[in-house]
Design the sequence.
């Protein structure tokens, strides 16, 4: 139909606008469709690539489903910061050091660390060797007491001189023991022999050195090693800690202990223990014992009274904190169970001659410390 010219002229602008708008709409829809198709294509490619990266073969023809990646969180602290109070050194307290049963203690070896040394750091609370049954034995065992093992200096007083043994004289004394069948033992052997759990050799003798002087390491230790002898060294632990001149160091004591020597307590700083308060005595006895245990790896069980001074309180605390015996400066050769905290010793002086030494160690009418019928 052909509209009148006037009407056609009127409708023509409207038709052109409609026609142009429809084209524009078509173009918009076409562009949207192309964009959607492109997005879908890219998404599929990405998913395929991810599947190839994360899938792991588990068996022929199978693919495992990847597990989700866990979140990486900062690790929690394993321990709390140390408390300054916990790191302070505490005053000694009455804590019994664990130990094995005394029946498991063998005789010391002069060439290696004695088994007792390492065994005393674990096990049940310390138990004093006690008699099997009713009776114990009183044994004749000379305990020899040495101090300095060196020539006294020119300005030495009478005490320094009297407490000194010449190195050559000491060598002669040890040579006599070796040539005449004597066997040096230690206090662990003595305790077990007294309570009938150990048989001693025919001629037992105990060698002791007081105070921990440097010349003990320099002059006595090599001679003892040469003859395969053991000895007991009673040391003053504070003097070792402070590295005082003229005294052994912890390294020296460790070396001697590893070679079979016994390192036992002579208190912290060598005070007179008689008439002192309970706390003071505990500090000296337990403090020195724990110091030795910390350095040597085993707990010492024997004590030497400083200057030979002590009282009933001292002996009671010795037993309370786990010592098995103690030695005095009193002369004598017989050792028993009831006097185990007052064992006697024979002093070796600077003026002691070899014949006098032979008399001191003479077992008399005994065998293995036992009186012969």
Sequence:
């Amino acid at each position: 139909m052909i509209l009148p010219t006037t009407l056609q002229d009127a409708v023509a602008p409207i038709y052109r606008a409609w026609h142009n708008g429809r084209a524009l709409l078509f173009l918009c829809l076409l562009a949207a469709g192309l964009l959607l198709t492109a997005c879908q294509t890219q998404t599929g490619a990405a998913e395929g690539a991810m599947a190839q990266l994360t899938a792991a073969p588990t068996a022929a023809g199978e693919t495992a489903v990847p597990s989700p990646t866990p979140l990486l969180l900062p690790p929690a602290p394993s321990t709390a910061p140390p408390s300054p109070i916990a790191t302070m050194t505490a005053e000694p307290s009455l804590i019994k050091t664990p130990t094995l049963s005394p029946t498991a203690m063998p005789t010391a070896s002069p060439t290696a660390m004695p088994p007792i040394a390492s065994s005393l750091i674990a096990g049940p609370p310390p138990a004093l060797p006690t008699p099997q049954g009713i009776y114990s034995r009183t044994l004749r065992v000379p305990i020899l007491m040495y101090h300095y093992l060196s020539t006294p200096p020119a300005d030495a007083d009478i005490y320094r001189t009297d407490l000194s043994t010449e190195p050559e004289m000491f060598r002669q004394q040890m040579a006599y023991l070796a040539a005449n069948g004597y066997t040096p033992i230690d206090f662990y052997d003595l305790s077990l022999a007294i309570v009938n759990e150990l048989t001693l050799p025919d001629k037992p003798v105990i060698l002791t050195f007081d105070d921990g002087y440097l010349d003990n390491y320099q002059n006595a230790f090599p001679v003892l090693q040469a003859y395969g002898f053991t000895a007991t060294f009673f040391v003053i632990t504070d003097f070792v800690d402070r590295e005082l001149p003229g005294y052994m160091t912890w390294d020296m004591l460790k070396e001697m202990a590893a070679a079979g020597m016994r390192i036992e307590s002579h208190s912290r700083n060598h005070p007179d223990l008689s008439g002192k308060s309970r706390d003071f005595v505990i500090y000296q006895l337990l403090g020195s014992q724990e110091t030795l245990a910390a350095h040597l790896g085993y707990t010492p069980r024997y004590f030497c009274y400083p200057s030979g001074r002590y009282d009933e309180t001292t002996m009671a605390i010795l037993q309370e904190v786990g010592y098995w015996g103690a030695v005095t400066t009193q002369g004598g050769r017989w050792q028993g169970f009831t006097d185990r905290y007052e064992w006697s010793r024979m002093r070796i002086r600077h003026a002691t001659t070899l014949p006098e030494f032979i008399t001191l160690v003479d077992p008399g009418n005994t065998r293995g410390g036992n009186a012969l019928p």
